[in-house]
Amino acid sequence: MQLGEIVANTLAILLLVCFLASTFFLFGKPLWPEQHARMVIIVPVDTMTTASTGRGDTPVLPATFDASLAHPRPS
Asked: What does the DSSP 8-state code read for residue 21?
């Protein structure tokens, strides 16, 4: 092979690689899916409303429970 053929083949391969890279960059999706974390944020406990025992081992619970404070169980 002559030097001109080597240079021409190298430039042709480089052009093909650039074309494929730009095609994947513009129109392709990632090869692996993005990871999504499912997090549950646990808020600090209010000891005044969640204390379960009082004096004489009698339960001290709130008279009512606000259902809007309860979060659904994560699936």
From this structure: H
Two structure tokens written together for 21:
């890279």
Which position has the higher pLDDT, 40 or 49? 40
Those residues with Cβ within 8 angstroms of residue 74's Cβ, 6 or more apart along the chain or in another chain: 38, 40
Between residues 47 and 37, the one the model is more confident about: 37
Say how far apart CA 65 and CA 46 lie, in whole Å: 13
* Residue 43 Rama label (left phi>0; alpha psi -120 to 50; beta): beta
Contact 49, 62 (CB under 8 A): yes
CB 54 within 8 A of CB 60: yes
